[in-house]
Amino acid sequence: MVTNLPAEAKAKWIKVMEAKTPEEKIRALEDFLSSVPKHKGTEKLRLWATRRLAELRDEIEERRKKKTGRGAVFFVEKEGDVQVVVLGPPNTGKSMLVNKLTGARTVIADYPFSTTQPVPGMLKYEDIYIQLIDTPPLSRGSGLINKIIGLARNADGLLIVLDATRDIIADFEELRGLLEDSGVVLSKPLGRVVIEAYRSGRQGIRFTLMGKLLNATLDDVRRLLEEYRIHNAHVKIYGEVTLDDVEQALFENTTYKPSVVFVNKVDLVSGVDEVVKVLGEKSGLPVIAGSAFTGLGLNKVGEALFTQLELIRVYTKSPNTDPSSKPLVLRKGATIRDVAESIHRDFVKNFVYAKVWGKSVHYPGERVGLEHVVEDGDIVEIHIRG
Ligand SMILES: Nc1nc2c(ncn2[C@@H]2O[C@H](COP(=O)(O)OP(=O)(O)OP(=O)(O)O)[C@@H](O)[C@H]2O)c(=O)[nH]1
Ligand SMILES: [Mg+2]
């Protein structure tokens, strides 16, 4: 999709990647767009950049409202370990579901478009806190589409709520289409590339290879990044990935959101098993059939999200103390480096070795290095200099 950008545009992209604030991002993105030639091959990219600009402007507007206390704020600060946005067509029971799962005081009403603002609540699953956000209905024609999708893009995962008394297949496809139009995809790509570019430093290009490059070598990736003037970056490759995917990843224009579907109101209809099964096959997603009203299926939501978001828990400890009871919540594939980084910046700089107890090691207390991949339930003790 990223087709033969001129060198000038490539060189400008780095500024967008490095931009920290929405204001900086807007300036850099506008500058980048001005050097992207207008033709068929760049159409999608330009469309995406234009949408992204609108989202960024919205974000600034929201921040301003929040600061001045004037106007309603749509953005929800992350709390807990992960943030999951609850999405769905009008009147499917999103608000009742969030209320039942978290106790949050949502607006529940028997007419559509009753929710006009996002409302957060906290769902506890074992020792993990999942922040659920109730949202206004997502449907074509709603003036809030960009804002709601902005919330979804910013979240760690989605909980899609459908209404069993309606055509759940059609409703799902409609919703998936809406999200895809804005670059939010629900199915996991075969591979995934994450590129973190650093503004300064002399680390060069560092790779974490958790999969493989299909048609290229790491040197090809280096050369590609060189064209974009990226000299300091951490490139993480998961699954099977092509050089195009790497280039694509520079543009953050599609993002995968792990999602779970909740088919609500099954207390009102009988024999939904078959259509629920079909939806599962069509969507490739875990589907829970239940009822916010009777409570059926509610106990499955936490675990389904935990699994679908591929979360793992790591319990850190200091020498001679017990592991913390509150886990660090990370993604599958996380390494000791990620653990160290989430404790303190200096932990990576001063790292000597880590001792690990749990599934990822051969014996309790094994010594490992920064690139060691941790697993759910691991206990980690990091030893640093000084
Ligand atoms: N029978 C039954 N009714 C439900 C269930 N869940 C929600 N309802 C009812 O459905 C209506 C809509 O519920 P809400 O939770 O407001 O739905 P919503 O999806 O948040 O609606 P909007 O915010 O307008 O999109 C209300 O009258 C609820 O009482 C359920 O599982 N079973
Ligand atoms: Mg609602």
From TrEMBL:
Matching SUPFAM superfamilies: P-loop containing nucleoside triphosphate hydrolases, TGS-like
PROSITE patterns: TGS
UniProt keyword list: GTP-binding, Nucleotide-binding
CDD domains: TGS_DRG
Domain named TGS: residues: 310-384
Gene3D superfamilies: 3.10.20.30, 6.10.140.1070, P-loop containing nucleotide triphosphate hydrolases
Keyword GTP-binding: yes
Descriptive protein name: Small GTP-binding protein
Organism placement in taxonomy: Archaea, Thermoproteota, Thermoprotei, Desulfurococcales, Desulfurococcaceae
